[in-house]
Recover the amino acids of this structure.
């Protein structure tokens, strides 16, 4: 597992694409939060990172599939899957190596956004007047969310030979998991007793819940189940291909 | 036994790719695995290496069951897949060290140097794999299969698509490796089989149609032997009729004859006598072997017509 993990991290930063993806992510986020007026922290006039935590998942819709799209699709296309699976490695080790590598990459790209916290901290009046606890909780929410997105992305990559298809399926699945359930809950047949239940399948509901600053085990369990569910599905799909 | 395959079967949809095959390969043998395209060679190799799961039957590598002890049995195998898939954006050394890491090879970098030396990759070792020529990529594939000193090597079409020089180099490399390891390799280049292996297994339509030592396969089925002679001057074909035990005579040229005879009766002394009587001299005499190619064609012929 360790070898697969380091290979993926190495090949991400070994190619120009890795830097482009990281650069585009940070540039987009920076422009939205500090330059363009609509979600700008500066125009908002409050020392808060709310708009960052609102925008971040939306940027993840595209960033995470871009990181995970090649994980298995490229191995399928070039035939190197055969190389890996005939080595003394279990399918689970290969999948976990790739999931953890993708997750680490997302975390590394997210790391520079800590500067935003520092900036807003300095800009507060008086200095440091911001909800540090809330921001910490939101970061934790974002980390769990990233894990579930990464699992979905790796799964999408495992079911195709094409990186582009892997990217599109991942984006579609992630957006559906994020907003789809909430939208579906609004269909009249679910109104009344069912709408809350349907909406509780959505990632957004649990993300918003964690962002309130309350770490509820139900939300954590939810993110872990989505993530683990997709990891299991990936292992299953790859084993089916050997039948 | 290094490789033991028992009643191995694999079906894709309605097509039976491998049909209850049995064979075993002893320690240190070099065995050629032949068959027309689509006969089931690669499928069998993919099952031996644990990439595909068989529908039926079992495989053991050095006594380890491939299905029940997948990890342990894969440690014993070095495998070069048919299309030689490699990570083209990795450097040769980086790739070999990555594979060595997966096998948890001791003193990894030393071992990497060793296989680079062994496969003649020296000059190309600091290039990216994608920049190498086909022959060198093949060497990287072989090097990666050797890095953990496996007892068994499974090579799927290791010499296809190489130019004549590369072919000879890779062949010599396989021969050298074969001195200390068990090798099962598939090919459709018959000269290579004759040059490399001790034994041949021919598979057709998922079934084994021949499994024998190469010397035995080269001999015609035992009921006839063929001699080709070259005389210094032309001779009438009728002159040969007086030799006992001769089954057929064919004249390729007025002075070149192909004689077919019963192996139980050696006609050579009588032949010399006759030629001497006719005041001719034999300049050349060769025993004509039926090549593996002929045997292969005969055994897999029905495949072509259907």
């Amino acid at each position: 597992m360790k070898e697969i993990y380091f290979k993926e991290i190495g090949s991400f930063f070994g190619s120009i694409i890795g830097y482009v993806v990281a650069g585009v992510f940070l540039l987009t986020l920076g422009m939205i939060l500090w330059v363009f007026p609509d979600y700008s922290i500066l125009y908002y006039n409050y020392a808060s990172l709310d708009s960052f935590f609102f925008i971040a998942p939306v940027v993840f819709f595209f960033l995470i599939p871009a990181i995970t799209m090649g994980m298995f699709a490229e191995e399928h296309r070039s035939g190197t899957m055969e190389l890996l699976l005939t080595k003394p490695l279990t399918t689970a080790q290969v999948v976990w190596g790739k999931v953890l590598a993708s997750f680490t990459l997302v975390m590394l790209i997210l790391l520079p956004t800590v500067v935003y916290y520092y900036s807003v901290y300095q800009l507060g009046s008086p200095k440091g007047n911001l909800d540090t606890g809330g921001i910490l909780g939101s970061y934790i929410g974002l980390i769990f969310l990233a894990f579930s997105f990464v699992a979905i992305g790796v799964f999408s990559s495992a079911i195709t030979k094409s990186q582009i298809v892997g990217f599109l399926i991942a984006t579609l699945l992630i957006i559906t998991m994020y907003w789809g359930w909430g939208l579906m809950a609004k269909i009249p047949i679910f109104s009344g007793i069912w709408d809350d239940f349907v909406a509780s399948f959505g990632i957004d509901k649990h993300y918003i819940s964690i962002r309130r600053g309350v770490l509820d085990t139900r939300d954590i369990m939810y993110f872990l189940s989505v993530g683990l569910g997709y990891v299991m599905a990936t292992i299953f799909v790859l084993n089916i291909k050997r039948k | 036994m290094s490789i033991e395959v028992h009643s191995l079967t694999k079906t894709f949809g309605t097509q039976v790719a491998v049909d209850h095959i049995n064979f075993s390969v002893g320690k240190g043998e070099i065995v050629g695995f032949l068959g027309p395209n689509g006969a089931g060679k690669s499928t069998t190799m993919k099952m031996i290496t644990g990439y595909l799961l068989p529908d039926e039957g079992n495989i053991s590598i050095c006594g380890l069951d491939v299905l029940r002890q997948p990890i342990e049995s894969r440690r014993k195998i070095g495998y070069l897949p048919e299309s030689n898939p490699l990570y083209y954006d990795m450097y040769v050394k980086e790739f070999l060290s990555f594979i060595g890491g997966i096998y948890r090879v001791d003193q990894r970098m030393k071992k990497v140097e060793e296989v680079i030396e062994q496969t003649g990759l020296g000059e190309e070792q600091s290039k990216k794999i994608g920049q190498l020529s086909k022959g060198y990529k093949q060497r990287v594939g072989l090097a990666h299969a050797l890095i953990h000193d496996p007892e068994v090597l499974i090579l799927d079409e290791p010499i296809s698509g190489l130019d004549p020089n590369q072919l000879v180099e890779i062949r010599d490399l396989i021969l050298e490796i074969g001195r200390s390891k068990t090798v099962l390799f598939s090919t459709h280049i018959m000269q290579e089989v004759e040059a490399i292996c001790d034994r041949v297994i021919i598979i057709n339509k998922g079934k084994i149609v021949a499994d024998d030592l190469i010397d035995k396969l080269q001999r015609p089925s035992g009921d006839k032997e063929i001699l080709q002679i070259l005389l210094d001057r032309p001779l009438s074909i009728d002159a040969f009729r007086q030799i006992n035990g001769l089954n057929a005579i064919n004249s390729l040229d007025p002075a070149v004859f192909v004689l077919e005879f019963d192996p139980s009766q050696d006609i050579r002394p009588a032949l010399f006598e006759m030629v001497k009587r006719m005041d001719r001299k034999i300049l050349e005499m060769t025993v004509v072997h039926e090549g593996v190619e002929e045997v292969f064609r005969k055994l897999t012929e029905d495949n072509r017509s259907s």
In short: The two ends of chain A are 23 Å apart (CA to CA). Chain A is about 80% helix and 0% strand. The longest helix of chain A spans residues 132-158.
